[in-house]
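Example 9 (inverse folding). The structure is encoded as follows.
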């Protein structure tokens, strides 16, 4: 399973911030935890597992809320809708399922169409359409439960082998949309919707600026490509340096940096606009027993977050940083979730 080096958030060290104390351990899954994702407001955590279930956790009480059953194989990926009202999961069986996070119940029937594993899901941005109903892979309409059309990027193939990971330069603002931590009050749902659309679009435009969005891809061919897909079907640059397959890529929240993780046991840092190599973070050994936080200014290790261990390998398969930057969650082969608080 291509998950050992997926702890790419290690390259997104928090400025002047350390995680303290012993992490909280949440148990319940009976097989490896393969995916974790915070809700937008940081109040809930979703996890997907090799036991074919999705679990929802209350982070205020740090207790389980719901166990969502229905998948026929490993749950490889999960994604919250930008408005936080839906959660969708994808499995090794090639099926998708939408869930109601308030009840843990399915929202409609499983969505079938893929012939292979589903390893990534992305919702349509809220500034384009609210409420949120559509998500990829392919293009599914949540409220109807229908497959709408296959997505065609229009870009030419560039890699010589499987593409394992994709990341978009605006991903962070698309995920956090118009989130307001102050608890802003509204006089009506219409006012709230209008405000959210305005702020989400404003944040997106500010993040993107006058330049096109950038897409980075990581592959089994040991390379990465940086794309500006809206203006060219050819890659902007080819990024080389890893000595084994590139398992995961991620843009920093401000889009200035790209981090990549590889089976060569390294995390590399790249310029997010031009793709130039910046630094290599070395220190992981295989198997991985720890999550490491790196300082991108000094290019040095900032902090270890230990905790995942088992009698086989202690591998960490998934990591997520809460949108407010105050919490880190991880899941691994030891079948538990770890939560670190800032």
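The amino acid assigned to each position is listed next.
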């Amino acid at each position: 399973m291509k998950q050992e080096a997926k702890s790419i958030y290690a390259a997104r060290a928090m400025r002047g911030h350390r995680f303290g104390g012993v992490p909280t351990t949440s148990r319940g899954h009976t097989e490896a935890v393969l995916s974790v994702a915070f809700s937008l407001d940081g109040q809930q955590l979703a996890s997907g597992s090799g036991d074919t279930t999705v679990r929802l956790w209350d982070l205020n009480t740090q207790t389980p809320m719901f166990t969502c059953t229905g998948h026929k194989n490993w749950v490889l990926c999960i994604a919250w809708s930008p408005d936080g009202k839906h959660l969708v999961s994808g499995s090794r069986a090639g099926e998708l399922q939408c869930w109601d996070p308030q009840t843990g119940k399915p929202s409609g029937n499983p969505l079938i169409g893929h012939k292979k594993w589903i390893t990534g899901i992305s919702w349509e941005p809220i500034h384009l359409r609210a409420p949120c109903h559509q998500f990829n892979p392919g293009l599914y309409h949540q409220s109807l439960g229908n497959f709408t059309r296959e997505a065609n990027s229009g870009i030419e193939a560039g890699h010589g082998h499987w593409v394992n990971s994709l990341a978009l330069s605006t991903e962070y603002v698309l995920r956090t949309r118009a989130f307001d931590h102050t608890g802003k009050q509204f006089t009506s749902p219409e006012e709230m919707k209008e405000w959210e659309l305005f702020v989400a679009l404003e944040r997106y435009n500010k993040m993107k600026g006058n330049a096109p969005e950038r897409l980075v891809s990581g592959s089994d061919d040991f390379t990465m490509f940086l794309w500006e897909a809206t203006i060219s079907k050819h890659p902007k640059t080819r990024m080389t340096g890893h000595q084994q397959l590139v398992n995961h890529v991620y843009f920093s929240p401000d889009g200035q940096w790209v981090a990549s993780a590889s089976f060569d046991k390294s995390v590399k840092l790249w310029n997010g606009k031009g793709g130039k190599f910046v630094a290599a973070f070395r220190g992981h050994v295989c198997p991985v027993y720890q999550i490491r936080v790196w300082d991108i200014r000094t290019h040095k290790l900032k902090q270890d977050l230990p905790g995942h261990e088992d009698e086989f390998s202690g591998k960490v398969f998934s990591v997520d940083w809460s949108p407010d930057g105050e919490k880190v969650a991880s899941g691994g082969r030891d079948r538990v979730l770890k939560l670190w608080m800032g």
